[in-house]
Amino acid sequence: MGTNQHAFKVVADGSITTPKGYKAGGLHCGLKKTDRHDLGAIVSEVPAVAAGVYTLNAFQAAPIRVTRDSIESDGLLSAVIVNSGNANAVTGKQGEADAYEMRSLFAEKIGVPAAHVAVASTGVIGELLKMDKVRDGISRLPEKLDASEAGADGFCQAILTTDLVKKSVCVAVEVKGQTVHIAGASKGSGMIHPNMATMLGFMTTDANIGADALQQLLRRATDLTFNMITVDGDTSTNDMLVAMANGLAGNEQLSPAHPDWAAFEAAFVYVCEVLAKAIARDGEGATKLVEVQIRGAESDEAARAIAKTVIGSSLVKSAMFGADANWGRIIAAVGRSGQQVNVDTVDVRIGDIVTLEQSRPVAFDEEAALAYLKGDTVVVIVDLHMGGSSATAWGCDLTYDYVRINAAYRT
């Protein structure tokens, strides 16, 4: 295990099945045109306390309604089943019936109540699921479930669409002498401008934690991480982040009053941040991760709004792709964020290169800036000098390939 500056350890070879009591797996059932996995599941050997956050898009996909129903029934989940290749969104009553059928069929196969299964889908909007293929896949899925890395890998493969890489992370943290694991897996590459979570995200932990504490923590972590990324400014119909905590670590129950809460919270947020940044880096057609830090804002809300405005600017993203230190686009985005800004006190830095100081241009080495912007990670720092609040947002550059990928998404 590698370490970092916080009171937790990153498990280098960890996965969503590293926390005690979890299995996962995936297979190809025929929803995708290729032979890539397109149906997967995570299963806990005991019912787990569950929490979820969902897209605020008005056209919420059918699986979101089913998952809400499951979690709100008694706050517990034993499993989540996910398909890729079809979003089951804007599919009317039939789409909702299909999502409920996925839930009941898988629940029956693994021997748990239907209300203890969450459902998620991702892919093309407006097409009905090929339920004959889904039914066949569900009948075969239990035999693919495994607590090994192979099972976790199968699940991670099953949730991908235009993603180029799997996104997974696991950490360990001590709670009163007991080792607790927190892990996560996610997918997302395009249609990423979350207003709740990522495209799809799943977290597993063996921690003993109360339902209210887990829900509040998930919302806070989401606001700090998944809600601070953007790829293209589009919020999906299917965005969902679900966390399961089965308590098998045997720790004293966690709550904000617990002496080890701060360490657990830091570990939980870290998992979300790693996944969020991985999504931003894997943006469709992207060549680099872009990080925008806003400092000296009047409030956390203002800092977040400004950071997301800058990171979401098509002109800023294009400049990043072209390795152009065009700070004018950055300052213009700050100015149109809708937040109060003192136009006489703003500093802008690209990496270590100061381009604006107290709202006045600073001569800088263009060649050095070009070399820095050609790297695979770019950090932009904006200091407003107005207060003590700050925020960080993540995104990527806007490339020719983004248009190519999305121009032919259905074909």
**What's the CATH architecture name of the largest domain?**
4-Layer Sandwich
The CATH homologous superfamily of the largest domain is named L-amino peptidase D-ALA esterase/amidase
In the CATH hierarchy, what is the class of the largest domain?
Alpha Beta
Supply the helix-strand structural class. alpha+beta
Specify Rg, calculated over alpha carbons.
Answer: 22 Å
Question: What is the general shape?
Answer: globular
Mean pLDDT figure: 93
Helical content stands at 25-40%
User: How many separate structural domains?
Assistant: 2
Uncertain residue ranges: 1-5
The fold-level CATH name of the largest domain is L-amino peptidase D-ALA esterase/amidase
Instruction: Name the assembly state.
Output: single chain
Total helical elements: 11
Largest sheet: 10 strands, mixed
Q: What is the CA-CA span between the terminal residues?
A: 43 Å
Task: Give the SSE string.
Answer: EEEEHEHEHHEEEHEHEHHHEEEHEEH
Total beta-strand segments: 16
Residue fraction in strands: 25-35%
What report would you give on this structure?
- One of its GO terms (cellular component) is cytoplasm.
- Pathway: Amino-acid biosynthesis; L-arginine biosynthesis; L-ornithine and N-acetyl-L-glutamate from L-glutamate and N(2)-acetyl-L-ornithine (cyclic): step 1/1; Amino-acid biosynthesis; L-arginine biosynthesis; N(2)-acetyl-L-ornithine from L-glutamate: step 1/4.
- Substrate binds at residues 161, 187, 198, 284, 406, 411.
- Its EC number is 2.3.1.35, 2.3.1.1.
- Keywords: Acyltransferase, Amino-acid biosynthesis, Arginine biosynthesis, Autocatalytic cleavage, Cytoplasm, Multifunctional enzyme, Transferase.
- The protein is α+β, with helices and mostly antiparallel strands and 411 residues long.
- The protein folds into two domains: 2-281, L-amino peptidase D-ALA esterase/amidase (4-Layer Sandwich); 289-407, Ubiquitin-like (UB roll), CATH 3.10.20.
- Helices cover 32% and strands 26% of the residues.
- It is built from eleven helices and 16 strands.
- It has helices at residues 62-74, 92-110, 131-140, 149-158, 211-224, 261-281, 300-312, 314-321, 327-335, 366-373, 400-407; strands at residues 2-3, 8-10, 22-27, 39-54, 76-84, 117-122, 167-175, 178-187, 200-205, 240-245, 289-297, 347-350, 353-357, 360-361, 377-383, 389-396.
- Strands 1, 2, 3, 4, 5, 6, 7, 8, 9 and 10 form a ten-stranded mixed beta sheet that branches. Strands 14-13-12-15-11-16 form a six-stranded mixed beta sheet.
- A hairpin with a 2-residue loop joins strand 7 and strand 8.
- Helix 5 crosses helix 6 (261-281) and helix 7 crosses helix 9.
- It is globular.
- The two termini are 43 Å apart.
- The model is unreliable at 1-5 (pLDDT under 50).
